[in-house]
Amino acid sequence: MTGGWTAKRFWKDVSVTETEGGFGILLDTRRVQTPGKQPLVVPTEPMAAAIAAEWAAQDGEIKPLSMPVTRAANSAIERVRPQKPEVAAMLAAYGETDLTCHRATSPAELIARQAQGWDPILSWATDTLGARLVPTAGILPVPQPQASLDALLGHVMALDEFRLTALHDLVTLSGSILLGLAVARRHIDPQTAWALSRIDEDWQIEQWGADEDATEAAAIKSAQFLQADTFWTMCDGTPA
What we know:
By secondary structure, this protein is mostly helical. The protein contains 10 helices and 5 strands; from the N terminus they run βββαααβαβαααααα. It has helices spanning 45-57, 68-80, 84-92, 108-129, 146-157, 161-174, 177-184, 190-197, 199-208, 212-235; strands spanning 14-19, 22-27, 30-31, 102-103, 136-137.
């Protein structure tokens, strides 16, 4: 993750420095770089402070998996920035098969639960985003209004690479561009959004009981979803 990356901690002090384009992190006097040797420069001081804290917390062997903010910033710089149009198009395309549009055909209680949870999101997207999506029963998609898909793409394209990185995880983990944008726009909190993305799974658990492996996987994804929201918050300059 840096030009001086080794298996063991080699630095004594970690600090944040203001630099051209934002904020960087120093390990002693050495600037942290991305794995591809690009300067790790982030847009806000709270994000830089969070990254510095991750590096400062490393003791002995370096554990990249314990550094989610560093990894997200690296992704923004190395993966999202050079292919922003492609990433934005991929996320906006979730509108074609958005989770909130695909409804059960039975039983009545599940149908009602989906409507109660997802209909307000569809209404919000229509009123606020200018993106009316059409719900359908079953798993087969229906053509969505092109104007709505174009509106979603416009909202996503307007984001910088750091916010787009956060939105990527909000969307791909929930299966919904609408839920992702609802969290990003602070229409709903991330815990509520995650629960809305789990309506079908939670229904199955109520009927048949929980599977240990599935429960563990869901917990990991939930933590990643909340971390994506935290990264978005840092993009706004708000401390985590």
